[in-house]
Design a protein that fits this description.
By secondary structure, the protein is α+β, with helices and mostly antiparallel strands. It contains 3 helices and 7 strands. It is 26% helix and 26% strand.
Length: 172
């Protein structure tokens, strides 16, 4: 098993649409899934998309129970959001933008269709944190970061703070 370093905001892989996975149930894919869960837990996240570890493929892992309940571990391959209902506003952060958190409005209830590592299609409706995680990770696979959902003014402030950190060599 391998724990990957998390790619930080500013890296081009985070702002590109990731490529679809076409081969399932391979040793490489299964190892990547395990490594992604390990990397996510090590970084104390509830979700991780492959672009966040520098891999431009449409795969994400989510565990809103943070490793406490194996049944909550989800593998999203080539996911699509097929339904949205309601609205919720909550503070959101991202492993690729450490220390920054902003209120983001997202759907309250989200239905997602994806493949698992074996290539089987599954559908699930999530609410609250799970709905937010579905949208956040799917956004990553489309090259979108959560800061695109906040006001241009706040987004600009975050970008300026990051530029200062980059100049000071304090941004990985």
């Amino acid at each position: 098993m391998m724990i990957y370093p998390i790619v930080r905001y500013g890296q081009p892989v985070l702002e590109k649409k990731a490529a679809a996975i076409t081969e399932f149930d391979t040793p490489e894919l299964n190892a990547l899934v395990e490594d992604m869960f390990e990397s996510m837990y090590a970084a104390k996240g509830v979700g991780l998309a492959a672009p966040q570890i520098g891999i431009a493929k449409r795969i994400a892992v989510i565990d809103v129970a943070s490793g406490e309940d194996p049944a909550q571990k989800l593998v999203l391959i080539n996911p699509e959001i097929i339904g949205r209902e309601g609205a919720q506003t909550s503070e959101e952060g991202c492993l690729s933008l450490p220390t920054f958190r902003e209120p983001v409005t997202r759907a309250q209830k989200v239905t997602l269709r994806a493949f698992n590592a074996k290539g089987e299609v599954w559908e699930m409706t999530g609410e609250d944190l799970l709905a937010r995680a579905f949208l956040h990770e799917t956004d990553h696979l489309n090259g979108t970061l959560y800061i695109s959902h906040i006001s241009p003014l706040k987004r600009d402030l975050i970008r300026r703070k990051i530029r200062k950190l980059q100049k000071a060599n304090e941004w990985g």
